[in-house]
């Protein structure tokens, strides 16, 4: 019941997103990632709805619609891929 919301305006707040999606059902969580260095929103969010039907309704209604000057991309979030570990630590000096 988690959706990916892309192409968000950097001016969008969690409250703005909650209000937009609440028209289609209960919003249980909004995660608005920010850039580590600047603290500015990264232009996407994850929205969790209270039911599958609310999520489907929100996707149908909001995907491709304009919000704060940008056309939203809304779809069901995919599970996070395992990107593997950090680089290993092998290498270095060899004889």
TrEMBL record:
Entry-linked InterPro entries: Nucleotide-bd_a/b_plait_sf (IPR012677), RBD_domain_sf (IPR035979), RRM2_NsCP33-like (IPR048289), RRM_dom (IPR000504), SLIRP/GR-RBP-like (IPR052462)
Gly residues: compositionally biased ranges: 85-95
Region feature Disordered, mapped onto this chain: 74-95
Pfam families: RRM_1
Domain of life from the UniProt record: Bacteria
Species this chain originates from: Haloferula helveola
Keywords: RNA-binding
CDD domains linked: RRM2_NsCP33_like
RNA-binding recorded as keyword: yes
Basic and acidic residues: bias regions: 74-84
Stretches assigned to coiled coil: none
SMART domains named in the record: RRM (SM00360)
Descriptive protein name: RNA-binding protein
